[in-house]
Write a structure and sequence with these properties.
The chain is an alpha/beta fold. This is Long chain acyl-CoA synthetase chloroplastic-like.
């Protein structure tokens, strides 16, 4: 009888618990001003959060508070470089391999001393608060120290991707009139290449001690100093802090650029603090025991928020790189540890491309091994998948423990074996990869939605929400409102869910674009209650529990899997010059790392080429299907793309040739012969799916 009761009651309790979670209201309707729409707030707050810490209004105050409370705890860690080797493959290509040692740590107290010394040294060099400083380097501990030091002198920091091209780099530095550039040795080479085009740079601080000889001061009209020398100068000549206010601009962050040159987004201390505070309240039990692996670019708002967040709660930050992340990463010497193995982090931020790579690598190894090992993995994966999806069976903690011990422990070791939470952002995360993380790494993954313009703040999925395809409710510092977009056919009165353009409001909304008032007025509004709103151009819908799902984009700009923006119209205009193209539509799937294209061919040009090549065909449709024709047209598109200096990710990797012309009569173009993107996408959905191998 007891066994019968246990066998019935326990699954029933689990079932009711799961259904209670599914009915949980995560976002609640909000009363807001501004444009009419359907607004939602986080269930934890009644109004947007500005700070989670009493009396803290700036990032300087937040960092000082953390350093006082956690003075003797470890804060920043960097791996020792044991050796750097060059390996040559069988085809003659050379690859750099690194042998990295254990992490070397410095405490909160030591970091604070470095920050105050660097801040004093910066002032002693002659940098005044009215001047801006740029950090142009890979993610590393000096990046964090320099950022905090600039904040202590109320110096606005211009953040620039280390991978940014020279034209965009020159534009960013000149537009913001940067006086001091803090960079690594590698980035200094790029700076030297454009030295003659820089208008305002007076000082260069090189993080690495071995300054290249061609970067000499006299040659480029700037003084050049090593990072360590600036710290030493500051220690010997201490200067009082010049503390900022909440409304002061902390960062001008240059995006990777969706069209043309990148735009600088102006973020105040209050903006960034609001997002840090909100995320701190929704990541479960974040505190001094947490170890964070930092490897994403700190010039990206996701990484900047994450590092400031971990430092605020007394956690440790260990630095790595995407190319040394795991034991099998490209730059890791065989037989040595990757960053995750050496650090054993508990928390990570990730972009979908990194997680996809881990998933694909695991499945490839499992399939290659085959036999009983694969059968056991498949059984374990199926059982855990059923549990997560709400099945009674396999949901018990004992079974989860058993599968982790027998099957998933080795997979969890890839990222150090201690991951308990992953923050994911930057691009859409596929449901398959989300389930892989839940099952194989045994960790919840919080998928976030936000933009540089909202300081990464927007929405973030709760740790106990196992649904896929959604990005959670608004975070506690944000309202999210949907407004009607009649042209796209989206309305807040749609059934079964309200739909519309996503507008985000709250203290995390940035001031706008630097020296671009027109674009700022176009994208930002302040309502009658003083709430600032950003119009994202994305289209979403709210589920009954208040969670957001992204379903479309108003403009033809798409973010690929690795975070690059592709302007479909710009690329189409560039490659339309191919003689084989009558019309073209570029298509990009945010879950993929490349673009594809549908090409309505110029029949005379293609037939003339086929005749010269002696290719036989019965009709134009057959010719469009021939591999030789597809290769020739693709080569022509690549040629046009290179002439237009398009990036590699903007060039369509695969194409489909279409024999029928696009005319107003077919409904595929307007009377002015502009393509109807959505109609073409729906008409040729099958062809597009095949191009992506679906």
């Amino acid at each position: 009888m007891n066994a019968y009761i246990i066998g019935f009651v326990v699954p029933l309790v689990i079932y009711l618990f799961k259904n209670a979670k599914s009915r949980k209201r995560r976002g609640l309707p909000a009363d807001v001003a501004g444009d009419p729409g359907f607004a939602v707030r986080n269930h934890r707050v009644t109004s947007p959060m500005t700070s989670a810490w009493e009396g803290v209004t700036t990032l300087v105050e937040l960092f000082e508070r953390a350093c006082r409370e956690h003075h003797h705890r470890l804060l920043l860690g960097t791996r020792e470089l044991i050796s750097r080797e060059i390996e040559t493959s069988s085809d003659g290509r050379s690859f750099e391999k690194l042998h990295l040692g254990e992490y070397k740590w410095i405490t909160y107290g030591t970091v604070f001393e470095s920050v105050t010394s660097f801040a004093s040294g910066l002032a002693k060099l002659g940098h005044v608060r009215e001047e801006r400083a740029a950090i142009f380097a890979e993610t590393r501990e000096e990046w964090f120290i320099a950022l905090q030091a600039c904040f202590r002198r109320n110096v606005t920091v211009v953040t620039i991707y280390a991978s940014l091209g020279e034209e965009a780099l020159c534009h960013s530095l000149n537009e913001t009139e940067v006086a001091t550039v803090i960079c690594g040795r590698k980035e200094l080479k790029s700076l030297v290449n454009i030295a003659g085009q820089l208008d305002s740079v007076k000082r260069v601080i090189c993080i690495d001690n071995d300054v290249p000889s061609d970067a000499s001061s006299a040659q480029h009209r700037w003084t050049i100093t090593s990072f360590s020398d600036v710290e030493k100068l500051g220690r010997e000549n201490p200067i009082e802090a010049d503390l900022p206010l909440s409304a002061d601009v902390a960062v001008i962050m240059y995006t990777s650029g969706s069209t043309g040159l990148p735009k600088g987004v102006m973020m105040t201390h209050g903006n960034i603090l609001a997002t840090v505070s909100a995320v701190m309240t929704i990541v479960p039990n974040l505190g001094p025991k947490d170890v964070y692996l930092a490897y994403l670019p700190m010039a990206h708002i996701l990484e900047l928020i994450a590092e400031n967040l971990i430092a605020s709660v007394g956690g440790c930050i260990g630095y790595g790189t995407p190319l040394t992340l795991t034991d099998t990463s490209n730059k890791v010497k065989k037989g040595t540890k990757g960053d995750a193995s050496a650090l054993s982090p508990t928390v990570m931020a990730a972009v979908p491309a990194i997680l996809d790579r881990v998933r694909d690598g695991v499945f490839k190894k499992v399939n290659a091994k085959g036999g009983l090992s694969k059968q056991l993995f498949d059984l374990a994966y199926t059982r855990r998948l059923k549990a997560i999806n709400g099945s009674w069976f396999g949901a018990w903690g004992l079974e989860k423990f058993l599968w982790n011990f027998l099957v998933f422990k080795k997979i969890q070791a890839i990222l150090g074996g201690r991951i308990r939470f992953i923050l994911c952002g930057g691009a859409p995360l596929s449901g398959d990869t989300q389930r892989f993380i839940n099952i194989c790494l045994g960790a919840p993954i919080g998928q976030g939605y936000g933009l540089t313009e909202t300081c990464a703040g927007g929405s973030f999925s709760d740790f106990d929400d196992t649904s896929v395809g959604r990005v959670g409710p608004p975070i506690p510092c944000s309202y999210i409102k949907l407004i009607d977009w009649p042209e796209g056919g989206y309305s807040t009165t749609d059934s079964p869910m309200p739909r519309g353009e996503i507008v985000i409001g709250g203290p995390n909304i940035t001031l706008g674009y630097f020296k671009n008032e027109e674009k700022t007025r176009e994208s930002y509004k302040v309502d009658e209650r003083g709430i600032r709103w950003f119009y994202t151009g994305d289209v979403g819908r709210f589920h009954a529990d208040g969670c957001l799902e992204i379903i479309d984009r108003k403009k033809d700009i798409v973010k690929l899997q690795h975070g690059e923006y592709v302007s479909l119209g710009k690329v189409e205009a560039a490659i339309l010059g191919s003689p084989f193209v009558d019309n073209i539509m570029l298509y990009a799937d945010s879950f993929q790392s490349y673009c594809v294209a549908l090409v309505a061919v110029s029949r005379p040009a293609l037939e003339e080429w086929a005749s010269k090549q002696g290719i036989a065909y019965s009709d134009i449709s057959e010719l469009c299907g021939k591999e030789e024709a597809v290769k020739e047209v693709h080569a022509s598109l690549v040629k046009e793309a290179k002439k237009a200096r398009l990036e590699k990710f903007e060039i369509p990797a695969k194409i489909k040739l279409l024999s029928d012309p696009w005319t107003p009569e077919t409904g595929l173009v307007t009377a002015a012969l502009k393509i109807k993107r959505d109609i073409i996408r729906k008409t040729f959905q099958e062809e597009l799916s095949k191009l992506y191998g679906k």
